[in-house]
Design goal:
Length: 139
């Protein structure tokens, strides 16, 4: 049996007790409620896309082959690669931010990777920078 959640396994796990959250970048999966949030907003999605996202987010930055995804995200007798393409396309569309690329990338002839961009830190003052003081003019 696969260590990764298939739709049937997720249905059985619903009664297993609290499991917490899985967060990568600004995408979060609430494993207990089976909800996906991007930047704090709920992203509705069908179960198969949820399973794929969960699998990809368990291995952030790692390329998962198409064969691996088919073997671990579907039960035996899984659909063909074209079905995987459709689910990945829809998942990518759901997760795409208003600006910038989707965190789900295709690695040509290999598979897919969940690799959200690193958050941009606010600029910090340079070390040694002196803030000028206002010195009142002498009378």
């Amino acid at each position: 049996m696969s260590a990764h959640p298939t739709p049937a396994a997720l249905e059985l796990q619903a009664d297993a007790g609290p499991r917490g959250t899985l967060t990568v970048g600004d995408v979060e999966i609430d494993l207990d409620a089976m909800l996906v949030r991007r930047a704090g907003e709920i992203v509705p999605m069908p179960l198969q896309e949820y399973v794929l996202l969960h699998l990809l987010m368990e291995h952030p930055g790692r390329v998962l082959s198409r064969r691996y995804l088919l073997d671990h995200a579907w039960q035996p007798g899984h659909p063909d690669a074209k079905s995987l393409n459709v689910h990945i396309y829809r998942l990518r569309t759901r997760l795409r931010p208003a600006t910038g690329p989707s965190p789900l990338r295709t690695v040509r002839n290999v598979g897919y990777v969940f690799d959200p961009p690193a958050p941009v830190a606010p600029p910090t003052p340079h070390a040694g920078t002196v803030t000028p003081l206002h010195v009142p003019a002498s009378p």
